[in-house]
Design a protein that fits this description.
Elements lengths: L1 H20 L1 H44 L5 E7 L8 H19 L3 E9 L3 E4 L10 E11 L5 E6 L18 E6 H7 L6 E8 L2 E15 L17 E3 L2 H11 L6 E8 L6 H21 L4 E4 L2 H43 L1 H9 L4 H35 L1 E3 L2 E2 L12 H25 L4 H9 L6 H4 L2 H4 L2 H13 L16 H31 L6 H12 L5 H36 L3 E5 L2 E2 L29 E2 L12 E16 L2 E10 L4 H4 L13 H10 L3 E5 H4 L8 E8 L2 E13 L12 E5 H8 L6 E6 L5 H9 L5 E6 H9 L2 H35 L1 H9 L4 H34 L22 H27 L3 H4 L7
Parallel strand pairs: 4-9, 6-8, 18-22, 19-21
Antiparallel strand pairs: 1-10, 1-11, 2-4, 2-10, 3-4, 3-7, 5-8, 7-8, 12-13, 14-23, 14-24, 15-16, 17-18, 17-20, 17-23, 19-22, 20-21
Helix pairs in contact: 1-9, 2-7, 2-9, 2-10, 2-24, 3-6, 6-7, 7-10, 7-17, 7-24, 8-11, 9-10, 9-24, 14-15, 15-16, 15-17, 15-26, 16-26, 17-23, 17-24, 17-26, 17-27, 24-27, 26-27
Length: about 950
Amino acid sequence: MAKTLLTVSAVLTTAFKRLHANLTLALCGFIALLAAVALSVCIPVYAEAASLRLLNSQLERQEQQTNRSAFALLFRYIGSQNDPLEWERVQAADDFIRGPGLERLDLPLDGLARHARTAQLRLFLPQSAGAENPFLTNASVGFISGMEPYIRIYDGTAPQPVDASIAPDGSSAPIEVMVARNFADTIGINVGDEFNLVTNSGGRVVSIPITIAGLWQPLNSSDPAWFYAPDALEDVILVPEKTFIGPIAEVLANEVDLILWFARLNGDRLTATQATPLLARVESVRAQAAGIVPGLALEQSPAESLGQYRTEVARLTTTLFVFSVPILSLVLYFAALVANLLVNRQRSEIALLKTRGVRDTQILGIYILEWMLLGALALVVGPTLGLGFATIMGRTESFLQLSPDLPELQLVLTWSSLQFGVAAVILALIASLIPAAVATRRTLVDEQQQAARVSRPPFWQRFYLDFLLLIPPAYGLYQLQRGGGLQLGESGADPFSNPLLVLVPVLLCFSLGLIAIRFIPLIFEVLARLAKRPSWVAPLVALRALARQPGAYRGPLLLLILTLSLAAFSASMARTMDGALDTAIAYQVGAQMQLLETGQSTEQQQGGQQPGGGQQPQQPERRNIEEEARFLFVPVSDHLEVEGINEATRVGTYSANIQLGGVNQAAQLVGIDRVDFPKVINRFDRAWADGRSLGELMNMMALNPEGVIVSRNALERGLSVGDVLPAVVTIAGDRREVQFQIIAAVDLWPGYYPQDGPIMVANLDYIFDQMSGRYPYDVWIARDANAEVSDLVAGVRQRGITVIDAIDTETTIREEQARPQRQGLFGLLSVGFIASGLLTLLGFLLGSLISSRRRAIELGVLRALGLSGRQMGVALVAEQVILVLAGIGAGTGIGLAAAQLVIPYLQVGVGPHPGVPAYPPEIAWSQVQIIYIIFGIALLLTLLALAWILGRMRLFQAVKLGDTN
């Protein structure tokens, strides 16, 4: 045991000493591991937080639609679907749900309502009333607990519980009950009245005398605390719970015909770590409750939404990790690069250790221990940096664009997220140990022989893997060209869940980057031969060094090329996607904002019966539209009185049927006000109308009131401009044949898609005249950029205008930009560029320092031959500047080439028909320039630091006998 401890202590001491001796390289290795951990952790953290935000919005919409708390649980047993039960049979379930069941869910409880009732009983007047027909109605007897704060005693008092048994023949004293006010008004009940409830139970007639103690009504019938609408409880005669489970349960057999528990949980502080376990706990409580009472069902819970959340987290995490492959590959490559530099400095040491009898496994074990120490430290610090990366992703609007207006994410670090960080460290360790594993196979003789040989090209150049790797992206481009592109955004497809969106250009950039690395040294050789003028000593020295020692800079240069090429492609892809998004939504909405309005109907229901009043609702009486209007409207100009609305126009969308090629075809009839319509339109491209502007088309409609503009797909089936086009128009059940005349054809019309059927644009007033009446229409508006949509809608409604919904272009764009898939992709690309960019700068500085130290004898000899310190500094700086310019040029060219080749086939869009209207690929020149200016400044600073360090080198420090690292 003591020997083992001494061995472990010796190994640890050796590892720490070696790390301290190579502190700069060790620090760079730690930074690589730190970046790997942070990037790996930020993806699941962001996925959980973004999906939780989506879950909360879904639950909020669910609460608005159902008027129930989104985190409410409704357990219900229905006797008519199963069998009525005795109270003793359900009491165990009642005790479980009220006690350990809800406690197990581990969420605050805002309220618990319980309700049980019998089957329908017959309500009779007492015999003392002497009525000829004493039967009044059917009603149930039940209790409600937990709803006292939401009930108002309108008249009388709450009923008092009783313990005395009830005689089946009705001879016992009446029990106190409470009925709904509406029920009392319908039947004619007052406080103090007495009645009998009669039913057949257990083969005998049971009569229960009751007296009305009070009348109740809900304080707020739309309060989410209600498990049912209060109207549904009007035929339930309420008694205290003690009365129900006591005398009522004794006199009736199988008295529980319905029982429910409505628990309102508070999920306001639900975090990502609680969401998935909550789903499991809800399922556990449901299963145990159903086991106590078979047939007891959990009819409402957040389980479905939580299940969708769990699925969305898994899908989003997987998608983002696929998208992160190129970024993580760059980080792992940097880690391998640092490890290779470290091993190269220690090759002679490794060979010497082997000559002293140290085994390969022992040497490799030292490296494993060193990198494990660095990995452990990275696992301590990296998750915090990962939270910072996830915060940036949550604020991302587009590539390298952050928005403070986006809702904040609730970021939580979970054990599952840390597991991804551990996996990243393991991968980085494997990548970092490969150079050490290769070095342990060499002896001191091998090292001396290798030093005397001319360096060989790397294996991927010897086997032409760089050209072979070009085959997959070339085949992908061929398939894209052949198939018309990636059909991203179609129904059921998510453009940001398709890995081809990133993998095809990444493979293209990677293969072209390797090819560039092959040819750049040849270019340096050509330039070196041209730079033979005596005054060009420094450039000649720099170019000769670059041409003869490509292995010294191959790694950092490849890192630079890949980083910048991916940045150039990502910026152009983001610019194109953003433009396509803005164009598609602006076209889909048509104007800045649509108000979906209905007008006021003049038709009333017959007989005064309201739906739900006990009789079937009757159809409204159809008015003769030629004699009296069916709908009333306020002038559209009233919208302009609302502050923030600048322009408004009517737009009606109606059904029409036309004959195309002898076939009856459904068409989209669009009615517009030709004067106001152009004032609100987001965009109208002349190319859609054969070069005509929207104003020209409106003038043509002014000259021809019956004129109609049709989509071009209608002309392709036998029609032409100038033809009379009869159409059967159907609006609100009224049908007329209307004659139109085709005056122009268009490819597209704002707000409408030819894929949904031929488009017909006509004068709205002409349509109303031909239909002999006015019908509901929508209002498209132009608004102030700073106006709130909710304020505009409220202002319109205050003027007596019915607004069903509002669709706003800017709001829709923001919602799309905040989608987890889109935001996650651009956020990941942004933080990935930041991380890989910093690693690239560090790699360049590190590679330059190591290379300069390795060439110390060469530099010292040049100083001894008369090369001044300034000339040597210029030569070294020129060497790095040439490398940087080569990397920037190659990276820029490759990235923009990938953008030009791939982006045209990324048919990304939104709306019912993505890609309509088409948006051409756009190169983000301004963003690319900013990226390269920042990168150039940062590289310049590193070069100045390098020149300052090397400029202080003294001759006696550089020129020395023996080998050098």
